[in-house]
Design brief:
alpha+beta, two-stranded antiparallel sheet, 19% helix
């Protein structure tokens, strides 16, 4: 299967980002996440166990949060992390 990539980079307000994250949550619930812009479309089907990484960085006046969710279509028998993430 050929590689598919999707990139979207823009300046948004926090309400729009909150709505996007809510849509992602719905996609995880349904098992299908479809991203599209300017004629580009990618459909992802998260299921089973997923690798989840959160990074935060603060330097001077710049702040950054990176959220990464990664999985393989056939990944089923990995162990769950026992260390919970706390977001407040």
């Amino acid at each position: 299967m050929p590689e598919q990539r999707f990139v979207f980079d823009s300046l948004q307000d926090s309400e729009t980002i909150k709505d996007f994250l809510a849509s992602l949550t719905e996609g995880f619930d349904k098992g299908t996440i479809t991203l599209s812009t300017n004629g580009e479309v990618i459909e992802l089907n998260p299921g089973g166990l997923l690798n989840f990484t959160v990074k935060a960085k603060k330097k001077g006046g710049s702040n950054k949060i990176s959220i990464k969710v990664e999985w393989k279509d056939s990944q089923k028998d990995k162990k769950l992390s026992e260390s919970p993430l706390v977001v407040s």
